[in-house]
Amino acid sequence: MKNRLKVLRAERNWSQAELAERLGVSRQSVNAIETGKFDPSLPLAFRIARLFQMSIEAVFDDLDTPP
Amino acid sequence: MNASLVKNPAVRRYLLTFLPSMGAYCFLLFSISGWFGWEPPKSGWGLYLAALSPSLPIGVALFSMGRYLCEAPDEFFRMIQVQSWLFGLGLTLFTCTVWGFLAQYAHVWSLPLSLVFPMWVFWTGLASIFVHLRYR
Predict the structure, then answer these.
(1) Whose CB has fewer CB within 10 Å in chain A, the N or C terminal residue?
(2) Which residues of chain B lie closer than 8 angstroms to A32, CB-CB?
(3) Is B130 exposed, middle or buried (0-12, 13-18, 19+ CB in 10 A)?
(4) Please, is B113 exposed, middle or buried when counting C-beta atoms within 10 Å of its C-beta (0-12, 13-18, 19+)?
(5) Which residues, numbered 1 to 60 in chain B, qualify as contacts with chain A under a Cβ-Cβ cut-off of 8 Å?
(6) Which residue of A lies nearest to B79 if distances are taken between CA atoms?
């Protein structure tokens, strides 16, 4: 699943470690989500969206994801 | 395992249960093997208790793994752990099945069932390297 996490993080000048700390996850989790290797759970996706004060759809794009 | 994760209480609890239980398993296994090789008990409760004793730490280890799954703080590392366990399980099933057919039809010596868990730990350890590399 594509996402805008890297762009949103860069806009705020946050490092992966800083974002990870704000989300309460590991830096490796943030890296895996940013590179599209790992899709976060719904609760974590909500936490990410809330942190950036956006809707989940504005952060994550599931158009390429097969049904 | 990530160094910062080791500071997490759930991870610490997992390691502090899993590693000693594996140590106890090795100790009991070698003790029982030595005892049975030197002077095997002929019958009675002692025989059964001694024969069963190495399996008790394995039960503790499995319990600690189940508890870790429920308490793991990071869903990404939990997924990596689960994938490693599943790959290990698949490889163990495959190895046992291949060995079973060899024993059945080619009269290769039978694989002792007590080796299934150590085999799973071995395959899981190997699989976890590849799973970690995949998500690096």
Answers:
(1) C
(2) 76, 135
(3) exposed
(4) exposed
(5) 2, 4-5
(6) A38
Structural domain boundaries enclosing B62: 1-73
Which residues lie closer than 8 Å to B35 by C-beta, 6 or more apart? B50
B41 and B95: one domain? no
A42: contact with B, CB 8 A cutoff: no
Residue with token string 């280890």: B61
CB contact under 8 A, B74 and A25: yes
Report how many Cβ contacts below 8 Å link chain A to chain B.
29
The pTM of the full predicted model, rounded to 2 decimals, is 0.80
Residues B39 and B53 in one domain: yes
Per-residue pLDDT of chain B in tens (136 residues, 90 and over written 9): 555 566 678 888 989 999 999 999 999 988 888 887 777 777 788 888 888 899 999 999 999 999 998 888 789 989 999 999 999 999 999 999 999 999 999 999 999 898 999 999 999 999 999 998 888 7
Total number of domains in chain B: 2
**B40 and B88 housed in the same domain:** no
Between vectors from CA B105 to CA B99 and to CA B107, what angle results, nearest 5°? 75
- Which residue from A minimizes the CA distance to B73? A25
